[in-house]
Each structure stands twice: as structure tokens, then as C-alpha cells.
Protein 1
Amino acid sequence: MSEPVPADELDRFAALARRRRTSLRLDPEAPVPAELIERLCAIAAWAPSHKRTWPWRFAVLTGAARRRFGEAAAAQLVAEGIDDEARLAATRAKYLRSSTVVVVAAGAHADPDLHAENRDAVAAAVQNFLLGATAAGLGSFWATGAPVRSAAVRRMCGFAPDDRIVAVIYLGWPTGEVETPTRPPAAVAHVRD
């Protein structure tokens, strides 16, 4: 049997998890080094993966690719019947709020159970990525919306047609602090005998 984790190690991890904030107070011009992003993707890939399907797919968008991504997201809204020009303009521009956008998808699987579990594995990978980003001093924001439904976005990111986009992560260097939200205690049921 292995030794229990020292309390101070668990306390440090708990502090890291509490420090992770959803924030768009990011410097849109300060680049995140490619090596750091690669490292965060490697950390993400330590998430559990049922039957070792390794379903995570990553696409890193910087520079003008962020604008093209916004155009593809706006086109998806138009295809869904949205014609509010203010909303479409905001969608075209919003991916420019951070220097880097990381799109994370789940690889498709022919088995319906594994297909569903792949999405769960990718959600766990996204959390690893976000915690790693926090540990590295980066700010992040996990979004979804129109891009997750867009075939054009999947093509732009190099994903297969049946891959499912799970997260659009705004990533960058923070420009300010974000207030720590209060959270209710976790609901835990202890079932014995």
C-alpha cells in the first residue's frame, strides 16, 4: 500500500484549483510560447481514457487564425438563422480577446459507449490543461457556443468530421486579478454496508 499524500501537498493542489479562474482579462498581444502550450497539452493528455482511446485533439490558433475562427463561428450562427448584426460582429471579434485560442476535440468512436466516454475523457483533459495553465501563471476561459457545431471550424482545426469539439479555451497572460467566487460545499453521499 502506498503512503498517503502529505497534507501540505494536497493543500497546495487545493490552492491551485481554487486559484484557477474563468477570466477574459488577458493581454491579447502577449504571445504564449509554443513550448508552453505543447507542455500544457502533454499535461492534459494524462487524463483518464477508458480503453486507452486517447481521444484528445488540440488545435492552437494565434495571429490571424483567431479572426478566421471568429468568421467561421459567425457563419455557423448565420446558418442557424441568426441575423442580429451586433451579435455576429461580436462573434467575429471575440476570439481576438486573447493571444491564443486552443480548440480541444474528442475523437469519434464507432462504439456508442466509447464515443460518449471519449467526450468525458476530453473534459478531464481540459481541466488538466486549465490547472496547468494556472500553475504557469496564465489566465484561461473555457467556452463552447457556435464553434462546437461548425463543420468549417472542425476543418480549420484539422479535426475529423465526426470529432466533437468540447472546449474553446481563451489562453493568455492575465492583465488583472479576478475575484474568487464563493461555491457551495460539494454534496457527498457516503454509502456503507
Note: The two ends are 23 Å apart (CA to CA).
Protein 2
Amino acid sequence: MNEQTLRQQLVELLADSHAHVDFAPAVADLPPALRGVRPEGMPHSPWELLEHLRIAQWDILEFSRDPDHVSPDWPAGYWPPSPEPPEDGAWEASVAAFRADLRAMGELIADPASDLFAPLPWGQGQTLIREVLLLADHNAYHVGQLVLVRRRLGAWPE
């Protein structure tokens, strides 16, 4: 496999749903009244999961491209302060930000000037390929949780 093929496959790993549910249907058509509800026995609401996905992805992206990036405090900085969206439009804004950061990570990975294998000089041995695999894994896990929460809320098409 050549490097260009590897880059294309990594971008597809982020953007497509080859082995799991894609982000788009996981966040689509969820009634606003359910976005802040934690189903019985579940630790997170759809809003909390969406915001966690957005914040963690933003952090991984910024860490991957900005030597001056400061990550949020762990773990509180990676979760919203409330299970409910803070205002009308917050859900849509979070979805849009997630999509924009996902595109930006794809562009970073696709750029031949980005060395996939060199340790990031500001990290502790992390590489760009490690960060994209971490992001894909993290997103798949939490999108799956979001689908499970929606099922428990009766808001997932069967």
C-alpha cells in the first residue's frame, strides 16, 4: 500500500460508516424534547454524548495541528455541564462544529505535507496516524452509545 492510499483510507475511516452507524443518522431527527433526557439506567443524555464527541474531536484535532493547544481539564472539560442543551440552536451548532472539525481532520490527514509517522514535536511520542486512529475509535464508540440512548428513548428507527 502506498502512502496516498493509506491517507485515503484514513479519511474514509473518519468519514464513512463501514462497520458501524454513521454520525449523520445518529444525530438526525431527534426531537428537541429528548435531547437532554438521560434514559433510566444510562449515564448520559444525547446532548451530553454529542457535546463529548464534539469537544474530544476538537481537542484531538487541535492537538494534532497546534503546538500551543491546551487541552481541557480531564475529565470535566470533556463533558457539558448539564444534560440539556443550554439554548435553542445549541444542538445544531454542536453538530455543525463536529462536522467542520471532522472535515478539518480529514484535510490534515489527506495533506501530503502532513507526516503521518513522525512524532509530534509537542507531544509525548504521539503521531498523526495515532491521533486519527484514536479519533476514529473514540467517535465510533460514542456514536454507538448515542444510538443506544436513542433506542432507550424510543427515538431510533428500527
Note: The mean pLDDT is 95.
